[in-house]
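Quick one: co-fold with thymidine-5'-phosphate.
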Amino acid sequence: MSASGGSFITVEGGEGCGKSTLIKGLLAALQAEGRSVITTREPGGTPLAESVRTLVLSPPEGDAWTPLAEALLMNAARSDHVEKKIRPALERGDWVLCDRFSDSTLVYQGVGGVSRDILLAMQSEVTARTRPDMTFILDAPPEAMLSRRTARGTSDAFERRPIEFHRKVREAFLDIARNDPGRCVVLNAELAPEALVDAALKAVRERLVPA
Ligand code: TMP
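Sure, here it is.
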């Protein structure tokens, strides 16, 4: 919890793991307790960072960013987002629920081949003063997430990458959780949405809300 009372919570996991449903549920529950809460996402969250989102996630047909360029763009967007939106909100005492943050860069651009040292150096510069108090990692076998996306009719981008990529992403997120158990809470993404929100709220109450 920041000095003024807000907490910074990030939600991470592979595509299709249910991050947005969890964030909606947490938002409603925390607001019902009378807290002031904002939700945001990465890449994005500010006008400039949203422009970078379009640039990095939708390169022209037939072209692609190198993993290093992706890492630089993600961090450029994050720097703007942290300085203009996340930190001011925490300083006002708001709670911030963010859909993806710096763990996603370590995981995705790390799996893409960018060296861990370079990724950690960028992360420490960009997030020096603003680190998540708590991170939920939504975990499930990639096959389960793929069928969920197929059922929703949103499988295209997901299917473009081989299942092996998604297995590596899953392992990399679990590795982050193992190395930082004080911040990270792994949740079973195959739980029903209400059960997932309940499990997350329990962790928030245990770890972030003083008795
Ligand atoms: P989303 O659709 O779950 O919001 O994620 C957007 C995509 O951006 C997803 O494929 C993960 C990717 N991503 C990275 O590769 N690196 C990052 O740092 C972030 C924040 C997202």
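If it helps, The mean pLDDT is 93.
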